[in-house]
What we know:
Shape of chain A: globular
CATH superfamily of chain A: CheC-like
Mean pLDDT of chain A: 86
CATH topology of chain A: Chemotaxis protein chec
CATH class of chain A: Alpha Beta
CATH architecture of chain B: 3-Layer(aba) Sandwich
Largest sheet of chain A: 7 strands, antiparallel
CATH superfamily of chain B: Response regulator
Structural class of chain A: alpha+beta
Largest sheet of chain B: 5 strands, parallel
Low-confidence stretches of chain B: none
Radius of gyration of chain A: 16 Å
Helix content of chain B: 40-55%
Distance between the termini of chain A: 28 Å
Order of helices and strands of chain B: EHEHEHEHEHH
Oligomer: heterodimer
Largest interface: A-B, 27 and 19 residues
CATH class of chain B: Alpha Beta
Number of domains of chain A: 1
CATH topology of chain B: Rossmann fold
Amino acid sequence: MEPETVLSVWKQAAEPALRRAGQALAELTGLPFALEDQWVGLLPWNQFVAELAAEHPVPLYVVTLSAQGLFKAQIWLVFTETNGRDLVAAMVGTPPPHPLDALGQSALAEVGNVVGTAFLNVFADRFSTAWEPSPPTVHYVARGWLEEQTAGDALVLITDARFQVTGTRVKGELVVLPTPLSDRSP
Amino acid sequence: MQVLVVDDAAFMRLRLRKLLEEHGYQVHEASNGREAIERYRALRPDVVLMDITMPELDGIEAVRSIVAEDPNARIVMVSALGQQAMVLEAIYAGAKDFVVKPFQPERVLTAVARWAPPNPANKAQNKGE
Lengths: 186, 129
């Protein structure tokens, strides 16, 4: 299949999938998250990671999961430290300790599980297949972590969406990296 | 009435425990499929709430093992993996129902109550604790 065709098909499916992911984020956290911005396109991987790192001041909470379906994909949910803590506070009901304790990290992991899987569910049903995610992992990352995830200048299909709680500073970013290339950390 | 909550996320186990105890259920926990099989064997709970995506052994495999030992096991899947293919696989494995995360509390309570009606006396006792 030509890259333009793949991109076109992916874009059509990504829009409802991102909407569903946003709904899941709102339902799980009880916060009125709205899809603020989304982008689907082909970009050199190292360029995308560099831009992502430049936009997000460290430390960050990054929830990652991999998924296996029609092909392998990586899903990242990126939160600034403050936003991650705000999110956990809303879910647990009390301000979390700093850094997050096991319960707080578990809450963030569940955000990754529910939001990432909601995205995958739309793709799975659309293409009449199953798309199974791995258990999520929460990373509390300092400067350089994102940049270390680069895998050269390969052109990859990236789905990037930003969600924000209307009228507040609480926001998060969802990045989906479908890649038939090689296994890539994390 | 005893409910075994199986989920690798401590946060989700806590949320379900609180919900169920407020409605009179006695709650036990397991954090993966392998532990769920062992806990089921030891406890024989009235209902199991089972996640799918877990380390060590996933929820579908755990359902198959439990149902092989106890064909009358009442297992309700509680998972974000609400894909048509996965729902069917869970039902074929022996699950009685499927609740998709994020869930409304009432949806979970209805699914559990279908197989294990809550005991009002326990509800009052749990609230008093």
